TrEMBL record:
Keyword terms, alphabetized: Glycosyltransferase, Transferase
Protein name per UniProt: Glycosyltransferase family 9 protein
Domain of life: Bacteria
One annotated GO molecular function: ADP-heptose-lipopolysaccharide heptosyltransferase activity
Organism annotation: Marinomonas arctica
Pfam families, sorted: Glyco_transf_9
GO biological process, one term: lipopolysaccharide core region biosynthetic process
Classification via InterPro entries: Glyco_trans_9, LPS_LOS_Heptosyltrfase
GO cellular component, as recorded: cytosol
PANTHER family noted in UniProt: LIPOPOLYSACCHARIDE CORE HEPTOSYLTRANSFERASE OPSX, TETRAACYLDISACCHARIDE 4'-KINASE-RELATED
Length: 335
């Protein structure tokens, strides 16, 4: 059996947090198929905090800032390990070079249709064509070479106890993405917060500690009573627990939206820059409010079905095209 011949498995996915969420689901499915195998996951420091919630994974951090010196340190650390298989789940050339620091028998990468930055030069086995359009389906296609057929949600994560006093019923509003272009409007977020309050629920604002996110969240809650603002006050680990307890997460395309999928919380996604069929909340594509199709067709003068898989919209004001009434109408169906 294939399982008997595979006892050491390496996974390389450094970032970003949302993509690592997709990879967590795939790796957990693989671990169920190979319960005796040792899994070593190389990832970035922030994402490592999420991966460590997955029991049974040996997590090794690689900081991109360390460059080649960090790669050579990694090679020295793992010089005595021969991996039976490596899942190369990142499209970057940096990650491809990193994989060459490891001794590996089977280097498995994406199919040619999904391969980018010459990833196929660094592997010796290619995945079959993915069965779906989503990024997670691409990851799953790589793992399918080892026999993994599907993923299940919610994932089994070792979540910490929450350190906040929370209301019984709350909805998370995560207003900021990894780039400011992903953020929806101030007026739109305030309208969502008010609607949540009208439903007798508590809106909880979440986000990172950057000055932009803290200021934006303060402007959202300004003059509105009953909002719990936790922006800048949560770790990756506590964010997972916080999201698991929520009724719903309202968010653009960013980490917390995909954490919600991992822990089984519904998501109302707000999309304009990327195709939600490719990067949306995996179990809640039907709950996405998106203007991607119309903006992409306007920018490229082609139907979306004729555009390359990873095509994005470049309009810096794309998110402003999402109308408040669209989002409130979808919100009313979910809470």
């Amino acid at each position: 059996m294939q399982q008997e011949g595979i006892q050491q498995i390496a996974v390389v996915r450094l970032s970003a947090l949302g993509d690592v969420c997709h990879a967590v689901a795939v790796v957990q499915a693989m671990m169920k198929l190979y319960p005796t195998a040792k899994v070593t996951w190389i990832t970035s420091p922030l994402e490592a905090r999420l991966v460590r919630l997955l029991e049974g994974v040996d997590v090794i951090e690689y900081d991109k800032k360390s460059g080649l010196a960090g790669m050579f340190t990694l090679r020295a650390k793992l010089k005595h390990v021969i991996f039976d298989a490596l899942l190369h789940l990142q499209w970057s050339s940096r990650s491809s070079v990193l994989t060459r620091m490891l001794k590996v028998k089977r280097r498995i990468g994406f199919s040619l249709s999904r391969s980018r930055e010459k990833q196929n030069w660094f592997v010796n086995e290619l995945a079959p064509e993915p069965k779906g359009y989503h990024v997670l389906d691409s990851f799953l296609s790589v793992a399918s070479v080892l026999g993994v057929q599907g993923v299940t949600f919610p994932c089994q994560l070792n979540l910490p106890e929450i350190e906040f006093d929370l209301p019984k019923s709350y909805v998370i509003v995560n207003p900021c993405g990894s780039k400011v272009e992903k953020n929806w409007t101030l007026e739109g977020n305030r309208a969502v917060v008010k609607r949540i309050l009208e439903k007798g629920l508590t809106p909880v604002l979440t986000g990172g500690p950057s000055e932009l996110e803290v200021t934006f969240s303060q402007n959202i809650e300004s003059g509105i009573e009953g909002v719990l603002n936790l922006v800048g006050k949560t770790s990756v680990e506590s964010m997972c627990t916080l999201i698991k307890g929520a009724l719903l997460v309202v968010s653009p395309d960013t980490g917390p939206a995909h954490i919600a999928t991992l822990v089984g919380t519904p998501v109302l996604g707000l999309y304009a820059l990327s195709n939600p069929k490719r990067t949306g909340p995996y179990n809640d594509i039907h709950n996405v409010v998106s203007v991607y199709d119309e903006l992409a067709e306007k920018e490229y003068n082609k139907p979306v079905r004729e555009l390359p898989w990873a095509t994005t919209v470049h309009d810096p004001k794309a998110m402003q095209h999402i109308r408040i009434e669209q989002v409130l109408a979808k919100l009313d169906t979910l809470i």
